[in-house]
Amino acid sequence: MKVNAVRVYVNSSSENLQYPVLFVVRQQKGVLSWQVPLIFRGLYQRTYNYQEVSRTLCPSEPAPDTGPSDQIIFVDVASMAPFNIAYELLVTRLESFQLKTNKPFNFTASPSQPQYFLYKFPQDVDSVIIKVVSDAVYPCSVVSVQDIVCPVYDLDHNVEFNGVYQSMTKQAAITVQRKDFPGEQFFVVFVIKPEDYACGGSVPSSIHGKLCWETDFVGLSGLWSKSVYIQAMLFSFLSFLSFYMGSVVVAINKNSLLVSLYPQRFLTLQSRFSLYPVCFLFSSCFAPDESSSSGGRQLSSPEHGPPAGSDTDSSVEEESDFDTMPEIESDKNVIRTKVFLYLSDLSRKDRRIVSKKYKIYFWNIITIAVFYALPVIQLVITYQTVVNVTGNQDICYYNFLCAHPLGVLSAFNNILSNVGHMLLGFLFLLIVLRRDILHRRAMEMKDVYTLDYGIPKHFGLFYAMGIALMMEGVLSACYHVCPNYSNFQFDTSFMYMIAGLCMLKLYQTRHPDINASAYSAYASFAVVICLAVLGVVFGKNDMWFWVIFSLIHVLASLALSTQIYYMGRFKMGKVHLCFLLFSLVSFLQDRMVLLIVGNLVNWSFAIFGLVYRPRDFASYILGIFICNLLLYLAFYIIMKIRSSEKLLPIPLFCIVATAVVWAAALYFFFQTLSSWEETPAESREKNRSCILLGFFDDHDVWHFLSAAALFFSFLVLLTLDDDLDTVRRDKIPVF
């Protein structure tokens, strides 16, 4: 049944603010009143006067049994002016009052002539998105969705009293669910603000003015049902569970080949390890090149190395600041200033002590994650509650053109797309756990290849990387509950830690005895996060902040380079002669080349920041971390090839997959869909429609691809040196 709506238009030529013309409209469900000239107040008490006013009266709802009913309307006109005032009054019936699904609708509005329309849910539709588009950047407008009640709040000073609302310039979108409206219908209200300052426009120069903007809107309604949510969730989980299935398939094929080649040996190790299911599911129980000319690994005798005990053996003393090595040829300063270093020179400490040192990374990041995540979750729940209670959708910076609500969550799609970080982080932990268990068993058997060959196996940093990947998913999901200026750091904090842990792991590979302690590393990450917060708060216009930050950046690069160059043995005020000689004879060594290039890159970043002062400071710091990580990884791979070391098929595949997936992920990352650095209305100008399954937007695809890219990156670090498992440590160069 058609809904009847009436609109009243009035116009007065009088500009006398002392004697306005008063209009009162009385109808069955309420009273509506206004004056002409109509006065609006803006920023700094600026006033705006309008001679023309039109309002839509609250419509009468047709009864199911009697149909449309007649309604009597009384219009009272009055003025206290001692002279005659001319006015015009026009009452018209609105023929196009009800919005239709997927049917464009054009209309005009101004600050003194707001508009609202009715929308009814079609059958079998659970959610609908109201899209509003304007050809002009300004005026600043407010779009509100209100329940069917009278009076309708359609003025600048009361539009925020009921329902949900957004400010807009060029476009806006509000997602509405059927469950929120028992009557299965609602009003869509459009209010034009008298000035543009609230939406990011300039402040008007005049105090008084007869300003009247008009704008054209196009109302569209896109809709979906529950099946879209089910398809999206199935796609998300099955996509990443396929990584688990791929691991199983690779393991089955690899183990089948090993069983056929070495059946007796496989059964022997199976019986001694009692880990056949773990080996069978994840990967080979053997090193890639263990089938060397010796025909297989031999168990070592006691003289081949120290007795292998548990990594958590309480009898092992903690590492001190000095080594009690009686022989001068074993002194750290002598060993680490050799012109050519080999892995055996930097893996002399007791394995159990070093392993315990790296396990602190894992336990510390667990503690950090718990204490960081709990207040974050509490805060974003509060934000979401405020949005739901007040209806103010300017609090959160979503991509409203592709925001699918679920329950109390306003953008469930942005949260669901982070499931990949958690699933792939857990899968990486399982793979690391498998390697860790096999290594422990081999150490208990005193396998000579485990004791004296290959890169020393320490898994604490790998565990920390897996936890960091999972926490990145958790905190990114928390951030996307309500993205805004106040919680931006939730989305990037663990990205800094992931990049830092990867660099530490890459350095630890060839320098197991001299890597940074967990306490120093996490303290450094804390400083970086503090700088990121300060940069967002002060970095936009404060030149002094950029000067101080650039200076800190350069000095930190030099200090870190010094520690790396001197293998952790450099101390201020105590420069040994051997260090000076070392500098002369190794100036052209590859490590020095890396440090020179690294410092040039970091100084370039510092100069760029000082000159251009990028607005997105958090992404700027993350770019510094990623560039340094990529530089170090490229150097490592180049040096590995120069040292005649091999790239086995699995790490080679992971390197290619990492490059391809990262390239695709970064493409979607730079498709900016919102920006908390701007006003909510300006941010909505960047909003775009969904691109995947009608449910996920570009940023969701970034979440999917970045999770896979990080997983492959971790696998590169995990498997890169598998070819060295049959090479003695005194033959493995340090670089």
UniProtKB/TrEMBL annotation:
Organism: Phasianus colchicus
Protein's recorded name: SID1 transmembrane family member 1
Family assignment from sequence similarity: Belongs to the SID1 family.
Topology term for the membrane: Multi-pass membrane protein
InterPro entries linked to this entry: SID1_TM_fam
Source superkingdom: Eukaryota
A GO molecular function held by the record: double-stranded RNA binding
Cellular component, GO annotation: lysosome; plasma membrane
Pfam families assigned: SID-1_RNA_chan
Residue segments, region Disordered: 293-322
Transmembrane segments: 228-252, 361-381, 415-433, 461-482, 488-507, 519-538, 544-565, 617-638, 650-670, 701-720
